[in-house]
Write a structure and sequence with these properties.
The protein has 400 residues and is of the alpha/beta class. The protein folds into 2 domains: 4-245, Ribonuclease Z/Hydroxyacylglutathione hydrolase-like (Metallo-beta-lactamase, Chain A, 4-Layer Sandwich); 249-392, Flavodoxin domain (Rossmann fold, 3-Layer(aba) Sandwich), CATH 3.40.50. Helices cover 35% and strands 24% of the residues. It is built from 14 helices and 23 strands. The strands form 5 sheets. The chain has a 7-stranded mixed beta sheet with strand order 1-2-7-8-9-10-11. The longest helix is centred in the C-terminal third of the chain and has 17 residues, at 376-392.
């Protein structure tokens, strides 16, 4: 199978998961890749990362087109999450002469996931010489698991950083400048919002840690999606630096579910009200917009208006699902409010407000509730409610 030269001694040998549409709840309409890299020295060859078990044959086919797997002397496990680690035993069986290394936490993770499998620990002081090229390691805990580790080839200035700088993007192209940098950056953001948002504090230190190690990568080679080279490297780093600060624009995401169209009508009127104040707004019905997309929309926006009609005294399940999803991602610095229609019993907006408070989203104004179908006058009230929320954005948050 086709491989890709990354640098003189490094070759991409990963697998392309064209059909992945769900990554533990993160909708992935563009699929993903599980990237792995061969680093060939004069004495031996290293394989950086493996893949999910169903993709091991694809990985090994690419490996075998470059080197005899039996000649591989080292396998590096940068991360023990199963999308990179599940296939490790099968790859080890095909590479019987390889020692296997991981971070100290990764050693424990490999043993726990693979029924006691023993591998060796490496850390920031270790250098493994492959002959003419060498590998260095930097544990990067909580970017995004405790075991996460970066591997660097100083001679070729290639940083193999696993999930960091990754994107869920299946493509025949291997570099951001080939697939189109704007698409790659878009997917970089979608990945950041849905995977890395809760560990932004750790992500904010990544560049400093890499600098402190004296690493000056010309190529960033993640384990999902395309690689970054040339000018794309600095642009990807700039995006990470920006997102990890938590900087937000005073704009609004409106997201809702609807039963008979009344909450949908409110969402539209509220959106129009927000826009009437010159504030940016996007509006999404959860019946048609994936959670991952809503989360990405929220990555750089401060305002979140959540709408649901009341069903059996509570919010609709898609709204509850969104709020549970957001709770795990710990969005910081957001303000919000709830809205929705009801027939014979209200209750949805109370639940939304309570859940927002649990998540740490400041509830900026009382909910807008509507019995049955809104009249023209009530839609005007909803419009004003949206405008009022827009005006409150950027105002000092009061606590009592
Ligand atoms: Fe791509 Fe955290 O696994």
């Amino acid at each position: 199978m086709r491989t890709e030269q990354v640098s003189d001694h490094i070759t991409w040998v990963g697998a392309i998961d064209w059909n992945l549409r769900d990554f533990h709840g993160f909708e992935t309409p563009r699929g993903t890749t599980y990237n792995a890299y061969l680093v060939q020295g004069e004495h031996t060859t290293a394989l950086i990362d493996t893949v999910k078990t169903p993709f091991v044959p694809e990985l090994l086919s690419r490996v075998a087109s470059v080197v005899d797997p039996a000649s591989i002397g080292l396998i590096v496990v940068n991360h023990v999450e199963p999308d990179h680690n599940m296939g490790l035993p099968d790859v080890m069986a095909a590479c019987p002469n390889a020692r296997v290394v991981a971070s100290a936490s990764g050693v424990r993770g490999v043993a726990e996931y693979h029924n006691g499998l023993v591998v060796e620990a490496v850390g920031a002081k270790d250098v493994i010489d492959l002959g003419g090229v060498s590998l260095r390691f930097l544990p990067m805990p909580m970017v995004h698991w405790p075991d996460s580790m970066f591997t660097y080839c100083a001679e070729e200035r290639v940083l193999m950083c696993n999930d960091a700088f990754g994107q869920h993007l299946a493509t025949a192209d291997r570099f951001a400048d080939e697939v189109g940098e704007s698409l790659a950056l878009d997917e970089l953001g979608r990945y950041y919002a849905n995977i890395l948002m809760p560990v932004s504090a750790q992500v904010s230190k990544v560049v400093d840690k890499v600098d402190a190690a004296g690493w000056k990568p010309l190529t960033i080679a993640p384990s999902h999606g395309v690689m970054w080279r040339g000018d794309s490297v600095s642009r990807a780093i700039e995006r990470y630096a920006h997102w990890s600060t938590g900087a937000l624009r005073d704009e609004v995401v409106i997201v809702y579910s609807t039963m008979w169209g009344s909450t949908d009508a409110l969402a539209r009127a509220i959106g129009d009200g927000v826009a009437s104040e010159g504030v940016g707004v996007v509006v999404h019905d959860l019946a048609v917009t994936p959670l991952a997309e809503v989360t990405y929309e929220l990555l750089e926006r401060r305002g979140l208006l959540v709408g649901s009609p009341t069903l059996h005294h509570g919010m609709l399940f898609r709204v509850a699902g969104l709020l549970q999803y957001l709770a795990a991602l710990h969005p910081v610095g957001r303000t919000g409010a709830a809205f929705g229609s009801f027939g014979w019993s209200s209750g949805a907006t109370d639940q939304i407000e309570a859940r927002m408070a649990d998540i740490g989203i400041e509830v900026a104004q009382p909910a807008y509730t509507q019995k049955f179908r809104p009249t023209e006058g009530e839609l005007e009230s909803a419009h004003e409610w949206g405008a009022s929320f827009a005006r409150s954005l950027g105002a000092p948050v009061t606590t009592d």
